[in-house]
Amino acid sequence: MSFLNEAHGTIRGSKLGQVGFYVSEPLKTVYREIAGLLGISFDEQDQQRVSSFETILVDGISLAHLDSLISIFPRDNQPKPLILVCGPVIGENPGLRLKTFSFNLGQEGTRLLMNGREHTEKQVSEPTLDLMLEEIRTVLRREVKNYIELPPIPWGYSYVMTLTHDIDILSLKEMPIARTFLGYCYRSSVLNWKRWRCEKVHTSEFYRSIWEIARTGAAKVGLGQDVWKRALPALLELEKRLGVRSSLYFMPFPNKAGILPESLRKDKDKINHNNDNDKDNDQGTGKSQDKGETEKQINLKRDKNIESAPANRASFYDVRNSKELLNSLEEGGWEVGVHGIDAWHDARAARKEYSRVAKLTGQDEMGVRMHWLYFQSPDSFQSLEEGGFQYDATFGFNEVVGFRAGTLQPYHPLNCQNLWELPLHIQDGALLGEEHLDLNREDAFLRAKPILDWAKRLGGAVSLLWHNQSFTAPRFWGTVYERLIVQGREDGAWIAIPREVLHWFTLRRQCEVTLSIEGTRWQIAVTSLPKDQPIPLVRIRVHLDPQRVRGASVPYEVGDGYLDFPAQALVTLDVEGEG
Prior knowledge:
The chain is built from 16 helices and 22 strands. It has 579 residues and is an alpha/beta fold.
């Protein structure tokens, strides 16, 4: 993987790098990723020529050894570099220029990117890693002359928004009359009556839910389509009307509940009770388990260390019967992905689930989100990468909205080379589900909107998850989804499918930027530009007084102490005064 090279300034014949790193060996992996989030490079060879940088980020090193490296290679008529201390260091300060931050970036960055936060932690609604990086950027902008950065904001937009859908169910007709089906009837009647009394459901919606129960019963015997059969077309029609596209994750295998993560086995007694209830329901209705599922249960019992997930985690549609649908989605600009079952558990399962859907679409760049957000860090990242996936979109919460990884940006897990993690920030069930926040639709929008506000302030990519059955009775949650999209449009967000978004973030990391100054003529050269890709250009930001700029070879935007313009092979600025 290629990372952005540091921007250089040729000023009065002295070529100086703007930002370098000097960190201990165990921290190199996390700082390589932190550099990618910052939009600068991390080159291990730079550690031996740290004196050539104006600013150096350090963590876990000896200050005395750093000072000796700087002394060996003095900077001609230049002040010593500013040292940004981002974590524990040893030794007394031998006369270096230090700026010490209050956080331990290497340690906290590793925790957030690899394990993430629990939903019960404080400030989970704030992108804490991004805020640490913003503190560093603030110092760089102030201390580095003519500082150049590549914000995580595509040119022409304010931030990025990705829309995603987990397709757990395609219709009620195909489901046995067991827990999920009976749960639908309960939600449509008893629960929606309670929600109607709390004004979470309109009167017309409550009566429609009751009517849909009757229609679903008719659909069971072949008369018409049930309400969830009509959910996906309703979702797609909404997105057509809004002029947006999304990613839809389909279950790769039917009648397969999968393996239960070890972290959830503390609820073993409750899970077994639920499974017993499901079994009783099946027996009471004359339904038997799928033969393949029975064989799977037998295989699981052979290994005492493996426990089956609850039976109601299984899906009942066969994706192979939807090949025409999947291809029409890809042709229409949507993106098809995998709603994983056991891909989180091992690479073999990941490859099977990837291949099952990839063969239907012919698309090799494919993402995955694990069903019920099952995950086991750090092994799951490696399993998904070895399985062939371009990205994972699991890292989020079922219980709340917020920042599990502490960031709005896609990133590479520290034990992977190619896999991207696209963090999940806002989920319909967390906001509106009766077992979680259980908000009304107005409050749900107001709870989610601050995440968009963070993106508008810091850049990055907000990720939304709305299940297809949320767009019909008994939920009626599509209005909140639509409001968030409209808000994103008003904010100036680029709303795109994950595949395109990750192409853009890859391009941002590959861009190499150099600055040369000769009198009032500034030239900024950019390499690794996109080739015929339908994505926005990378944004280049130069920190200088905009009033000094008398002209530019490209359109540009003016901010508070900086100038933004789109990445081009060569950009020329006419700037008053000395560089």
